[in-house]
Amino acid sequence: MDVKSPVVVVLGTGGTIAGTGSGPDEVSYRAAQLSVEQLLQAVPGLAGVALETLQVAQIDSKDMDWSVWQALAQQVQLALARRDVGAVVITHGTDTLEETAYLLHRLLDAHKPVVLTAAMRAATSAQADGPRNLHDAVRVAEHAAARGWAGVVVVMAGVVWPGHAVRKSHTWHIDDAFDGGGDEPLGHVTDSGAILGNVPWPSPGGAGWSCLDAARPPPRVEIVTSHAGADGRLVEALLAQSQRAGHALGGLVVAGTGHGTIHQGLTRALEKAEQQGVKVWRSSRVARGGVQSRESDHWPAAGTLTAAQARLALMLDLLGVPCGGMKD
Ligand code: SIN
Q: Which of 155, 183, 271, 295 makes an SS bond possible with 137, Cβ 3.0 to 4.6 Å?
């Protein structure tokens, strides 16, 4: 009997993994130049895998926005719904990878593996890490699909990170550019693409996608940082601008000091914002540990999320995701 292997759909969005430069040096290159099809051609180790590709976007991920996320989530959802598809792999830039991974974790009904990957060096660099990462991502996707594991993960430098906790933690290192903010990796990738590590994959965050109204613009949520001398003038300017523009500010995430503490000058401005209907959440500007809830809290703590991820969580909260109630 001819049993066909499940298809792995590889969606391209750009990033340094698809970047090219005029020489092998590390810094002079442009992100998002090669198609996802071209990226796969540079990975001969995947010959024999049933791959399908789709270019969803071609951007430097610093320019990520809601419309690209919508298109991406829709394509992932369509692929996951196909019976012949075992898993989805996404090539992405590293700069907002943590945001996309977290958002997909919250939005998708990911009953199959969704594996994001990226690169710290352009495809033309002498140190290009994209081919290995893409190879690992596809092998991890296959390995997980064969075992019925589901959910959103990130594979970088041979390490599998949970999509809801991953973050960029070094601006140029290749081997430790990402970590879990204190959370352990889910596993390590062997040369054959198997995953070492028995940590169960996190259950998918939920089918938030189904309660989003695609035509509704996302609420405006901004991030403000607490620092020495923070006096709240930035918050006041945001409130004044949103009144002038008639586009209400929905929320503010504070990247607080330490365990989410906020300068007293900034606190006063945030209280004023709250009185005007703006939701305030607290995260930390510290790389690991996050901000845990305490009984005495006035504003909710964002747990282990980075400020950028907490911004998305607050946007989803304002949009009513998950349908009908709060969820971490
Ligand atoms: C990007 O995020 O698209 C550029 C930087 C990178 O991928 O490392």
A: 155
Tell me if residue 267 is catalytic.
no
Buried b (16+ CB within 10 A) or exposed e, 247-273: eebbbbbbbbbeebebbeebbebbeeb
Query: Is the CB–ligand 1 distance for residue 93 below 6 Å?
Result: yes
Smallest CA separation from ligand 1 atom 7, residue: 93
- State the fold for domain 7-196: Rossmann fold (3.40.50)
Distances (CA, A) of 230 to 74, 249, 256, 267, 271: 40, 20, 11, 9, 14
List the residue whose alpha carbon is closest to atom 1 of ligand 1.
93
Q: Residue 228: pLDDT above 90?
A: yes
* Residue 253 near residue 281, CB atoms below 8 Å: yes
What per-residue confidence (pLDDT) applies to 156?
98
Tokens of 68: 């690209």
219-318 folds as Rossmann fold (3.40.50)
Please tell me the distance between residue 94's alpha carbon and the centre of ligand 1 in angstroms.
Answer: 4
Give residue limits of the domains in the chain: 7-196, 219-318
- pTM confidence score: 0.95
* Cα 62 to ligand 1 centre (Å): 7
> Please, what is the average pLDDT of the chain?
92
